[in-house]
Amino acid sequence: MVYLAAAIVFVPLAKKMGLGAVLGYLIAGIIIGPSLLGFIGREGEDIMHFAEFGVVMMLFLIGIELEPALLWRLRSSILGLGGLQVIISAAAIAGIAYLVGQPINTSLALGMILSLSSTAIVLQTLNEKGWMGTSAGQSAFSVLLFQDIAVIPMLAIFPLLAGNAAADAAPHSASLRDNLPGWAQTLVVLGAVAIIIIAGRYLVRPLMRIIARTRVRELFTATALLMVVGIAVLMNLVGLSSALGAFLGGVVLANSEYRHELESDIEPFKGLLLGLFFIAVGASIDFRLIMEQPWLIMGLVVGIMALKGIVLLLLGKIFRLSTDQNLLFAFALADIGEFAFVLLSFTSQTRLMSKEMTAMITAVVAISMALTPLIMLLYEKVIQPYYTRSEVKAEREADEINEKNPVIIAGFGRFGSMTGRFLRANGINATILDLDSDRVDALHNLGIKVYYGDASRYDLLVAAGAKDAKMLIIATDHAEQTLEIVRMAQRYFPHLQLLVRAENNEDTFELMDLGVLHIYRETVDTSLRVGVDALRMLGGRAYRSERAARTFFRQDERTLKGLSALRDDKKQYISSMKERIDEMEKLISSDRVKTWLDEGQGWDPESLRDEIRGEKIDEE
Amino acid sequence: MARVLINFAHPALEKSRVHSQLLRVVKNIPGITFNDLYEQYHDLDVDVAREQKLLEQHDIIFMQHPFYWYSAPAIVKQWIDLVLEHGWAYGHTGKALQGKYFSNIITAGGAEQSYQPDGHHGHTVHEFLLPFIQTAKLCNMHYAAPFVIYGVHRQDISDIQEDTVQLKQVLERLRDDKFDLTPLPGLENLRQILQLPAQTR
Predict the structure, then answer these.
(1) How far is CA A234 from CA A182, A228, A231, A402, B145, in A?
(2) A544 touching B, CB under 8 A?
(3) Is the minimum CB–CB distance between A612 and chain B shorter than 8 Å?
(4) Which CATH number fits domain A402-600: 3.40.50.720, 3.30.365.10, 1.10.10.10, 3.40.50.12780?
(5) Third-level CATH fold of A44-167+181-384
(6) ipTM over 0.85
(7) Is A542 in Cβ contact with B38 (below 8 Å)?
(8) Cut 0.80: pTM above it
(9) At what angle do helices A119-129 and A21-32 cross, to 10 degrees?
(10) Which chain A residues contact residue B152 at CB under 8 A?
(11) pLDDT of amino acid A171
């Protein structure tokens, strides 16, 4: 209960402060942990074992989301970037550890453990900030993926590394392979992996089919849980990490038709347990240890992160990321990941490391994880604006030579690029602003003048010539950013015509509230074109179908405007939405009598026919 | 090479009784090219090159349409504006259409007697068709007599069927290479060729 209460208090707080949920869990853990308030005592470690199951489930889900096709598409950055990152970082850390007098096996284990980054924290943060689509985000994702996979061989290698050390260790768990030599242990491990793959391929699908046929949803959830638990138990039996097994199980099931079903069943358990896991991590930070050797621990944290950061920066350069993207890439991945805990518990089981050292590294890992969201915050607030400003300054000089363009386009993704290309084809030059620096560079190489930067910034709009331009086309991906640009433009450049892309009806309403006149809902035209083609393929006349779509579109826009006017009162909105749907239903059902879609009454001879029929009767 | 081309224009065919009947037959006469303008150009963007090529390939060109407001649906005007280019259809070098026959296949709401100087509409259909006649002339074509179906709002199924059969017969005669076209401009209504003795050149 203490855990849940702590989570409820701290996670929203952390989110509010822009730190992200992960950091919230960690802080909650630190505060209720034995070091501070002491609500939870030593049982924290037990909780941690329990909560590790959250990690198991996370890996299962990561596995299930890993489509082979996606892997194949990213293969060069996964293998190249990811592989090099893990190998170089691991080698560098291991080398330093060896130099300061650690035995070679321990050094290697340390290197491997510390080379990993935190998938949970990094992906979560990248998603929150909307950086996933940037090239740095993609690269980071690739590296994380490779790391997730690299855990498997690492777990398999550790028993070999521990070979000597484990010999004199008393058997601590009833594992099948205790009395086997090192090579046989590895063989057992591989055998278990094979079992999972084969079972996943040939056993699970028929089983799922039977379960699905019963149509009892709880049964499905139970099966999914049973599957994960079963894998975990099997893995424990052979003395392997259950997380690894779950990951494998997930990958095997990635192409199964029950994939989404499984995902949604496991997801809530994972979220809860992972939160618990993070709290446990926070609680496990031993502040007494840190107080005893503050400089050593902080030094280790800073040193390792700096080392990893440098390796990442070098790799980013080799793989041609632009400077600011490269910095984001390095900042994101410089931390040490949650896998480290898994691996650490494994090393302490196999007695690769001493208890004190494990405790110390745990603290280091936890601190570095806690620092990650802070570092990303630093990047967002300090480094990104710096690059935005400096690039614009450099561009502005070039701009003075050229004439000012009448059109500014903010956002040159799949939406804005189409508009921009169309205008260009018609001889209209536009100044283009975009937030993806790599795309900016690529367009530069094609001879298209593009500014890197956030169009909601006043100075950037000035530099782009907003004072003399006639219109601003806002085609950015994120609704919030769009709204910011609109507000900025309305306040400082009221003469600009605004043509704004909206993603859905909700965005449209907000733009209407801001008084934007020209709003373009992004998929409306396409879906109506589909409708037109469908009508035609069903035998409708081309011209009539086209007109019907245009009429429908106008009607829809009218409805939307009407709804927008009523929207301030939420209740009224809902009831009126319902009324509109009722109205629409009535209209549609009246189609056959006199179609509301048809405004071509001039072409309808029916009334003339009626009149003439009337004359005929008169004559008779 | 097909001899007869029909450029058909109706913006609301689903509401038409006569044209939908006519089409069923006209479309399927072998050796006649049927070109549905509204279906082809629902956005009114006429493909000039395609249309000119079609014109070059035929000797007798019909515009088939309802007689909206003593004229034709909008796309027919669009078609004339864009396809009959200066230097191609008319002007010193515009000889592409020279010697071809041009005419209309028309459905009119009013009865035949209403299209008289003393009738409801005050003029004959021929008089109303003056822009088409002069257009043909300017493009070095002969304007043949139009095929007019009067009083379509009063027609019942059997009337429509009769007209359909007649149009089919007319088109089949024209399609036949042996048929002499020279008397066509002198006729009042194209269906009169059915009364002419079967003639050969």
Answers:
(1) 19, 10, 5, 69, 93
(2) yes
(3) yes
(4) 3.40.50.720
(5) Na+/H+ antiporter like fold (1.20.1530)
(6) no
(7) yes
(8) no
(9) 130
(10) 605
(11) 39
